[in-house]
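Structure request: DUF6647 domain-containing protein, Paralimibaculum aggregatum.
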Amino acid sequence: MPLTLVSGPLRAGLAVLVLLAASAAAAADPDRAALRSVVKGLERWLDRAAPYPRPMEAPAIVFIDAAEARAMHRRAGRLDGRLRGLYAATGATIYLVRPWSPRDPRDVSALLHELVHHRQTEARHWYCENAQEWEAYRLQARWLGELGIDPGFYWPAILLEASCTPRDIHPD
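Returned structure:
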C-alpha cells in the first residue's frame, strides 16, 4: 500500500497552490543578465543591418502589463494580435509587455523593433513619428526571417500607418 501524505481537500488545495506558483513564475520578468545578453546580441545584429548607429546611451527597459501598455499608447507594437512592446522617446524607455520571454523569438523580435526606434529617434528628427514604423517592421521581419519565422505582418496596414497621411479626409 503506497504511503499518501496528503489526501482529499488538502491535496486539491496544494494542487491549486502549485498551479498559482507556476503561473507566477511564468509571469516573472526575465533576469537582467539574460535580458542584457539578448540586448547585446540584438545590438550587434542591428549594427550590421540597420542604417542608424548605436546610440551612446542604452534605453531603459521596463516590463509592464498589457493594460498598462494600452493605457500608455493606442498604437503599441503588436504581433499575432498580442500587444508586445512600445518605445517612449521621452525618457528613452522600452516597455515590454508581460509575459515576455527571452526564449520566445517573437517576444525578442518586439524588443528588436523597439531598439530600432531607439536608434531612429537618436539619429534624426522625424516630422511624423509613425514614419519610423515601416523600417522598424522591415528589420523585425528580416530578423525573424533569418530564424525561418514568417512574421505574418499585414504590410498594407503597416504602410498606411507609416505614411503619415491624414486618414479622415472628406471632400466638400
